Amino acid sequence: LLGDALAGDRAALARVLSLVERGGEPARQVGAQVGLHRDADGPRRGYTVGITGAPGAGKSTLTNALIGEIRGHGQRVAVLALDPSSPFTGGALLGDRVRMGDHALDDDVFIRSMATRGHLGGLAVAAPEAVRVLSAAGFDWILVETVGVGQVEVEVAGQTDTTMVVVNPGWGDAVQAAKAGLMEIADLFVVNKADRPGAAEAQRDLERMLDLSGTTGEGGWRPPVLLAVATTGDHVDAVWTAVGAHRAHQEESGGLVERRRRRAAEEITRLLAARLLNDARRLTSGPEAAKLAEAVADGKLDPWTAVDDLLG
Amino acid sequence: LLGDALAGDRAALARVLSLVERGGEPARQVGAQVGLHRDADGPRRGYTVGITGAPGAGKSTLTNALIGEIRGHGQRVAVLALDPSSPFTGGALLGDRVRMGDHALDDDVFIRSMATRGHLGGLAVAAPEAVRVLSAAGFDWILVETVGVGQVEVEVAGQTDTTMVVVNPGWGDAVQAAKAGLMEIADLFVVNKADRPGAAEAQRDLERMLDLSGTTGEGGWRPPVLLAVATTGDHVDAVWTAVGAHRAHQEESGGLVERRRRRAAEEITRLLAARLLNDARRLTSGPEAAKLAEAVADGKLDPWTAVDDLLG
User: What is the pLDDT of residues A14-25, one digit of tens each?
Assistant: First the structure.
């Protein structure tokens, strides 16, 4: 199945990604085997671009426009839309079909939503694995787009080679609040819907935030702030050029290798934690654990002591 | 400090909650000691109400209106606003001040935002602990409101005594997508902004979802679907009455005890997992781990095998 998927069979690829999504032993086997598929000159390696920002900022539309840019350069692109809270966005169900519209007949575009509700660390473990599968399947670019905006989603979007934060005009006050979080993950900002009033102000606010924070980013990179209108495609080429500039900067400075190693270290930690969590669930499924839970629920015991008891 | 906090010192309470938010050893000490504070007839026990739903659904406004209801009954109320992705919502910075407006001089209202960015399992561990502190401080009701909507946030909001899902008219298609996720956590639905067109349709769609799913909820409870306009306060009393009905239903059926035990078991598992994650971080911080991360980043090793190596 994996062989077919990596050789270009789209249905097989979708099935492999479902295995990754579901986690557990099958995901583990995919993970172990996907690394064995490589070209003569080494493993295939797609470049990942994270696209995140507030709900309604126009991330999907921008992603679609970027697909057009990438295809214009004759390259292959996959989109991984992270939608773990699909109760509210409807992304996983509506998204794939609606969005494939423009590119449904193009074999060099692959769009996939991912919703790993329920298991802790699910998305954080599954997303990098899915990216590896898509890389091995020969996609030059992998766009990782968040649909909802939660703790895990923002973290995962930040775990990419280039991370794009999409905002809108009139963002005003939020800029201040946003400061800490955005500075950490943004390699470039896009003020989307820039044909609306307040675009220049939003741009200026972001630039001032960057000034104030004194952030120059990794290896002296200052995140550019670009204006664009994803719905019409205006300035989307400039956004794509900026992604290319950041990529070139990182490749020249050695920052990309460094970044990917940090990311791999983080991934190993999360995978290890997920495995330990499985052990934890075994520990907490017995009758002794049920008694402790009862005592905690009744306010007779604090959960920290309960954990000590279980480990002791 | 904890003694002062539980005796009614608001500044002390805010500081204790900051300790809980930050995690680690101080949080542990708070957790162990808060259980020791109890009245003659047992531990103080607030009733928790989760309020979740899509961004922009009007959750904060509804929460504010519910505060008014609760105060009208002469009871004390605390709000815990979960805002782990404050980069985008601005909740943690803007929220507390703006929202305190109505109730700033009322000692029986306490509003607190929580943002535990960064550490995995942070919010899932910190939120129940914060609830316990607020319970011990004598608040009759603790409203747990999500600001962002991500995997963890929805889970935490679902870990309450009564969980309310807020939607808007015109939700249409999303209802379908929402099905699975909402059925799992909703004890009642509020169609907010019900003065807009499409409110009756939204209500009917939700009722139909409930019919189709065959869900009667725990102990035969069918989640009611209420219409309200939080901005004007219209029908907010009916929402509050429905919360009371669900509470009474659970208290009579024994479902509340059962639910709290399940929740305690889940909390112990998460806490145990967080502790194991700490161990994992120690395991993955050495030079051997760095080598493995390099191999994974270079595509020479899959992360699953790296984890095996670290544990071996």
Answer: 999 988 888 778
